[in-house]
Amino acid sequence: MNNHFDPEKFVQSINRRTFLRNAAYGLGGLALASLLDPGLLRGAQAAVIKKGKWHGIVNPPHFPIRTRRIIHLCMAGGPSHLESFDFKPKLKELDGKPFPESFTKGQQLAQLQGAELKARGPFCEFKKWGKSGQEISTLFPYIGSIADKICIVRSMHTEQINHDPAHAFMNSGSQIKGRPSMGSWLLYGLGAETDSLPGFVVLTSRGKSGLQPISARQWSSGFLASKFQGVLFQSKGNAVHYVGNPDGVCQSTQRQVIDEINRLNGFTAEEHYDPEIATRISQYELAFRMQTSVPELTDFKKEPQNILDLYGIKEPGDGTFASNCLLARRLAERGVRFIQLYHRAWDHHGNLEADFPGAAKDVDQASAALVKDLEQRGLLDDTLVLWGGEFGRTPMGQGSGRDHHINAFSMWLAGGGVKGGLTWGQTDELGYKYIDDAQKMHVHDLHATMLYLCGIDHKRLTYRYQGRDFRLTDVSGEVARGIIA
Amino acid sequence: MFGYPKKAIVLSAISALIFGANAEPLRFNHDIRPILSDNCFRCHGPDKNQRKKGLRLDIREQAIEKKAFVPGKPEDSKLVTHIFSTDPDEIMPPPESNKKLTAEQKEILKRWIAEGAQYEPHWAYIKPVKAPLPAVKNKKWVSNQIDPFILQQLEAKNWTPSPEADKRTLLRRLSLDLTGLPPTLDELNAFLRDNSSHAYEKQVDRLLASPHYGECMAVPWLDVARFSDTVGYHGDQNQRIFPYRDYVINAFNNNKPFDQFTIEQLAGDLLPHPTDEQLVATGFNRLNMMTREGGAQPKEYLAKYGADRVRTVSGAFLGSTMACCECHDHKFDPFKTRDFYSMKAFFADVKQWGVYADYGYTPNPELRGVGNEHPFYPEIEVDSPYLKSRMADFTKRIDTAIADASKKMNKQQKKNFDVWRKWSTDFVKVHTNGWFTPTPSAQYVKKEMNSTPNTNFVIEASGNIQFVGKPGDTEVSLPLSNGLWLSAIRVELVPDKKLAVPTKKKRPTDSSISFTAKLENGTNKTSLDFYHAEADHKKDRFSNGASVIGVKDMWQPDPDLDNELQTAVWVLSKPVHLSTNETLKLDFKENGVAALRISVSPFAATAPMASGANDALAKALRKNDRSNLQTTYYLSTAWDTNTLADVRKWQREVLECRNGRAYTMVTKQMEPMVTHILPRGNWQDDSAPIVEPATPAFLPAPPNPTNRRLTRLDLAQWIVSPDNPLTSRAIMNRMWKQFFGTGISATVEDLGTQGDPPSHPELLDWLAVEFQESGWNIKHMVKLMVMSSTYREASNLRSPMRDEDPNDRLLSAQEPRRLDAEFVRDNALSIAGLINLQVGGPSAFPYQPAGYYANIQFPERDYYPDKDDRQYRRGIYAHWQRTFLQPMLANFDAPSREESVCTRNISNSPQQALTLLNDPTFVECSRVFAQNVLLQKSKTDDGRLDYAFEKALARPIKQNEKHSLLEFLNQQRQNVAEHKDDPDKLMHVGIAPTTSTLDKNELTAWTQVCRVILNMHETITRY
Hints:
Chain A has 485 residues and is of the alpha/beta class.
């Protein structure tokens, strides 16, 4: 990295004295100052950062960029891999019989702790789909129809068995609070492609049953500057907090107010040395751009009926998962780096046979539609779609459902340089634990692979905090090169 | 005391004199340790598991023994060979480490070896001593002991300090720094007029004595203590803890010595005969995040809670990062994994549960019945002065309203009163206790799905209704006669001998009691509404962590009192006067109790259980003693509906004050749990040794001659013992940051080897010792800092310092600093004149975008912004929801307080611009500010702008600003005239009323001007 231009170091060299200060003297002010005074920055270096947006700490990238943006479809609650992407006929045979103790001895269990363990066979049928013949449950016919475009990973595993810390682990590689989430890391590393929308956007939808809460810490930038944090778009009211003008104030007045604020701030800057003022001025400009671009973004009027039908959207903008998938595509088109959609209905401790198909129906069509729609627009090549939960479910039954499970679960990836029609990794005959270490996929491995696709060496994307260089992948993580096309 | 050579201290004191000079010998702590720590210690440092080739470079003897270098001979030193090598197999640090030494760093290391490779212990681990005050040339500039340390370094560079800031800037700075509030115009003018030599000091003393000083100082401590209103994990339920916040505010206001403050928070419960205050303080230990997620393992979460406490204590008091040691020895500092778990063991006696709910997989008799709505035990109930005074305030309003109404009775009203009095006098002659029990009838209410009646009744002469059979919905009818005032309904649960030995399934008190009521007269039906109900015995019910007030919607009798009479009284919102004979019908839902008796009364009291009559009332009625009858009269009749409506509203407020009492989470001691070292932090692995409470081994240990098990009290006393080199430094460094913008060591959260070497080490040490010697006197230290000439410098960084010291580490100027989130809010509310300056009390609910809590579950949450003066409470009182922090606070970098944090980011983001432009709080502030600008005495545009600027920024408006704003104002007038903006909408943002005397178009134009002023960078910055 030392051989390359590094904007953060550059700022520090301008300051001549290195001092740990992440946000206060941000790039924005400097970049703006450079517009006012081109002499401040010279030559090629000025060209690199002449616009107001953040251009990333990894610049140029460590590897060729395959993925420019990521859409993470997060099935919050932990979908059962045994009813979706990991068919276990042997488990079906064992249905209702005691679960072999050889599998479970000394293992961590959640609510099943101390209970009598019985095998629960998958209640649904599986089918081989497409040319690749990937096995997917018949509850996901639309995803089945894109089987040749997706890479199913059956060897996922994680370290946290409860929702809250497991989400934290999936997002930040740690269950400890205050660590940046993957979207923040990516934005910090690769920079933003838009300066009129946030670079990391989060959308949520409820679903019907098995609901799980989700915390704003899941998209926190942790110790990274807060400009890298995810922005939750609301399904009600303004999509972004405070993005609408006050009641009764028209857009031209708002513009005049901002102009006047900036003019007065300019006066202060002339008399008082305070680099923050220049940054403040640029942030008001950015705020105004957001005030214009967010309503345009969330206005679905121009989306034709056939596109709405493709996603299965009944009421555009109704906050359903389907509507959010379309919004995700619109965000991707506008240069948002990381888009995360939560569907909060996958915690099936009970009533699995009724609720799981319901949740599947909620997401199946729209998930597949998003992949198809990105493809027909030529965006799938450099957009990575990631589908899955924070963990899986036990092959042992829990009443009429399944408990949390961390030793094996399934996810799928599409686009962004990932091989389609591939099944990566496998689990034992009962779907309890991944086997074959060569194709394992720990959460850290997934992160390393995602960063690799984005052109980043996960070991070299670091940030110094409390005296330590932190990474998204902590101290491990291996790139799963086998899934890369 | 530490076995460290005294030389090190002297050496560092001397070297401060030669700061910046190149010819002087290199100093290990200043020049060498940062390079080694950053690049080498990871593999050649304290962590034995990571150590490569058995070489450690952090201990001189071992490095020499392993032949890493030969002091004085760089050419014979392997270290030099390796760092200058170009061979990828030989070069250090190795390429895969992603570390690289600069050419300058390589030369420095080489020179250091040539100079003899001397080591120093890390500065923060040596006991601080006061160095003599440095000699300086410009003695006139020195106000107190702080200044020579600053001036010495400036003079070494031939720099001068900045001139003193002007009085307006000074007072605004001081007010914002000490109270988080801007000066009022009166305060400003008083200071400007005061030409005495102690004018500034008087202001310092005034502000230090302000009750808002404590609020301002509490904010950073609440970050450190991770204070919040919710538990943080999963369902993020509410916890009851606000008295702890009040404790912190009071502690600063009363200048509680910091050692006592520390001891009370960590171990107040272990003090002899602890006071309520000392117990409230122990809420500190309970502020870790907690869970009641189904499936969570108690043991795992107890491990998480314990680890959180170690991180909190090490950060809050020691300025150290022990977090790493949960899994491995610290890679850079001498903290070991054992130290982490030994520290955790101090808290093994804190009573708590890993998972705060009653789950089948983890049965716990103490948590029976605990679900999502319950509080997080253990708690105590304490007085809340805020609630007490609020209750007194509303009680007074009620009494005054009734007395006033009574005084102002007209002829008709007096006649009504007489009618009531005569009727009542007759009534109490028959029913001496004021209650009347009609003979009831009862019938089972058929449910659609279930056609066979399964409840039967036995009606007794006493009015008792015995329920026989299975519980079912029941309608009870009570005949009432014409003339009666129906004000209160009493339900008595009658102990029934026949059911005295309850079966398992059915006990007399097995069921909760809830009913709806109506009056029926033929087809005429009036449903009755209740204001409140109370019972003499009940089982507590909870809603989102709070006790449900009263039993209006449901009464759960005390199940432990099967054989006693239990009574509850419902008071009608509006008493009803019966003009004909009517039937009172009560529909009981799923009634499962054994026997009930129902009575009615015409006499309602403020406390429901006091309804009915007594001798005093009977006497007052007989004697027509109006002053003793008026309260009963107004509460029991509905003839004066206006007064009654006011009274009911305020009565509800009184109820919400919960008798001036509040619950708060505390530390309760229990038998300590066993604490194992957890290999790599794995809570399931019990294979490693058990540890006892102990302080980090490399620091001096607390005295323990009898070798007993150490307690939290020992830990607290050790933290504030004079032998502890870290605490006073850590606290002073953070305090310095508060008043000067940057810590003396910039990494206030990490004074370890990876932290920033202090810019003025001798000053930090001097402050640390002074702090201890003053008896840990916070106000003394604050005063020292703000009285210094350094603090009073102007904040306009000059050249060449802008280039040579852009971060102003040498303090050649004060540092402009954006206000912290809470104070951005307080400042705007103060300028607008909206702020509510009451101190203490439960959290308040500022405006928040609708649906913000949509993603919270267990239970689902809704948010109701305050609709009275609580809307304008200071930011420190905002409801702190860990998973979804109030967006205004979050946008201005307030931390979620899921973890203890010693320092906040100060960002500058578009979200901040959007907040100040569009958040209803700031729009409302702008329009109310505009109203005040238009209502003050100057009626010219010029005069109004002068006023507005002085009010907002404590300074006169400048010509260019005035010129620009006047043009803007006229543009806005035109916009309104052209109907571009809608005054009616804008004037209704927020709940504050608009002044009807003002022209709304003009008000709109000025509102835009005030929006501009409140959005200015200067407004949210303290210069």
